[in-house]
Write a structure and sequence with these properties.
Layout: H1 9-14, H2 21-34, E1 39-43, E2 46-51, E3 54-61, E4 65-69, H3 75-78, E5 87-89, E6 92-96, H4 103-121
Antiparallel strand pairs: 1-2, 2-3, 3-4, 4-6, 5-6
């Protein structure tokens, strides 16, 4: 896998060590459930999701952990307490393979990223109403 770019998320996950695959499948499922309208693809040689054409999240498996790459570190502040105990680096969170996948936390990160992208693009997500501004009085 190191020399070849995977053509799909399924291919990426299948090429990972057996111990990592179930974790990555859980991460994938959490993101897809949290933001079903996000478009899944491969970017930077890893699974990624875009919303309104903007990068939302990427994930990747490693020898002793898997990571979420959020293309933005803005969610760190909002989830400060929940992220305690996880290694963080500039828009990235590392999750150890030895612990259960924090599905709810990953879903919250995905939703926060989606909300941030939606706010920046001013395009509401399907099923969510765009807030209207009241005229100044």
């Amino acid at each position: 896998m190191k020399n070849r770019v995977p053509e799909s998320v399924d291919e990426y996950i299948a090429a990972q060590p057996e111990a990592v695959r179930p974790k990555l499948n859980q991460v994938r499922a959490a993101i897809r459930k949290a933001v079903p309208e996000a478009i899944e693809s491969i970017g930077y040689r890893m699974p990624g999701y875009k919303l309104h054409g903007k990068p939302m999240l990427y994930f990747a498996g490693f020898k002793e952990h898997y990571s979420l790459f959020a293309a933005s570190g803005t969610f760190f502040t909002a989830l400060e307490d929940e992220l305690k105990g996880y290694e963080r680096r500039k828009g990235t969170v590392h999750f150890p393979l030895t612990k259960p996948v924090p599905v709810k936390l990953i879903a919250r990160i995905a939703k926060l990223r989606a909300d941030g992208i939606t706010a920046a693009t001013k395009e509401p997500l399907p099923g969510r109403k765009k807030e209207s501004r009241k005229p100044a009085q």
